[in-house]
Specification:
Structural class: alpha+beta
Strand content: 25-35%
Number of strands: 11
Strand order of the largest sheet: 1-11-6-2-5-4-3
Order of helices and strands: HEHHEHEEEHEEEEEE
Shape: elongated
Distance between the termini: 40 Å
Length: about 190
């Protein structure tokens, strides 16, 4: 159930599911479009960081797919220093530009396929306190003995009513992949 909720909170279209953070209408605002459809540059990360207004940056975090995180781990600045800083203390998150970075399997990944990757929202930066989640009822589980009696198994069915919506879209910015093939910046 947790995975289904996470997917809906990121990609839901609002039709019998939450309105996701990445929704085209009502979701995070477009902050930056990359010059390349296969890479993200250090300059573009700075652009995304500063596309978010300063009041929201104080509590903002980055979220991306693990494939992009690996790419980000390898980006270096002009002085040959990695911009991604792994958390060295137990319980402390990894950071980019001093802000925590988290991963989700429901954030789009860069595949390298021009058709699939065009305009894909691959990096999110924002203050999640503006994404409101409403739990309408407690989670319920029902045991189904008779349905699987022939195979000597027991089934379960679970339900939970939740909703979610970004109440202030300007509090989150996304980076979308561009249509170019090269990269700019470093």
């Amino acid at each position: 159930m947790g995975n289904a909720e996470e997917r809906a909170f990121f990609t839901g279209d609002g039709d019998k599911k939450p309105l996701g953070i990445l929704a085209d209408t009502g979701g995070a605002e477009l902050g930056v479009t990359t010059a390349s459809q296969t890479t993200v540059t250090f300059d573009e990360i700075f652009d995304l960081y500063y596309s978010l207004r300063s009041p929201y940056r104080r509590n903002a975090v980055f979220v991306c797919n693990e494939t992009l995180l690996l790419q980000l781990m390898k980006i270096k600045d002009k002085n040959d220093n990695y911009i991604w800083k792994p958390g060295l203390e137990v319980g402390k998150p990894d950071t980019i530009l001093g802000r925590p970075i988290y991963t989700s399997g429901y954030m789009p990944a860069i595949t390298g396929n021009a058709t699939q990757d065009k305009n894909k929202k691959v990096l999110l930066f924002g203050d999640f306190s503006y994404y409101w989640i409403a739990d309408r009822q407690n989670r319920t589980l029902k045991r189904l003995n008779e349905l699987y009696a022939v195979t000597d198994q027991v089934g379960f069915i679970g339900t939970q009513r939740v909703d979610g919506k970004l109440i202030l879209p300007e509090a989150m910015q996304v980076m979308a992949l561009g249509t170019g093939t090269g990269s700019s910046g470093s």
